[in-house]
Design a protein that fits this description.
By secondary structure, this protein is mainly beta. The mean pLDDT is about 95. The chain is globular, with a radius of gyration of 13 Å. The strands form two sheets. Strands 2-10-9-4-5-6 form a six-stranded mixed beta sheet, with no helix packed on it. Strands 1-3-8-7 form a four-stranded antiparallel beta sheet, with no helix packed on it. The chain contains no helices and ten strands.
Length: about 110
């Protein structure tokens, strides 16, 4: 079955960096567009970034543009999110997802606080 395992979250101070990873399985990873989403307490899940199947096209939400970078390794079925210049408003649970598939992973918690 389709599975996503996110990791790399944690507690970081404002201005710090984290790198999230998502290992996917159960489908042909290399042909799917992949995205990262996040959900903050009391808020709806929101789109953060997407990357095309070959990695050549990327898009970002305005709130993270210039600070976050999405990448993928099709040989390892992995999509990553490099997060720099973190702010308190980036605090959320972060999820990866394949376009067109309904499954979600358990997410990884990111907390930005001094």
């Amino acid at each position: 079955q389709v599975q996503f395992v996110e990791s790399g979250g944690g507690l970081v101070q404002p201005g710090g960096s984290l790198r999230l990873s998502c290992i996917a399985s159960g489908f042909t990873f290399r042909i799917y567009e992949m995205s990262w989403y996040r959900q903050a307490p009391g808020k709806e899940r929101e789109f953060i970034a997407r990357i095309g199947s070959s990695g050549g096209v990327t898009n970002y939400a305005d709130s993270v543009k210039g600070r976050f970078t999405i990448s993928r390794d099709n040989a390892k079925n992995t999509v990553s999110l490099q997060m720099n210049s973190l702010k308190s408003e980036d605090t959320a649970v972060y999820y990866c997802k394949a376009r067109g598939l309904v499954s979600w992973g358990q997410g990884t918690q990111v907390t930005v606080s001094s």
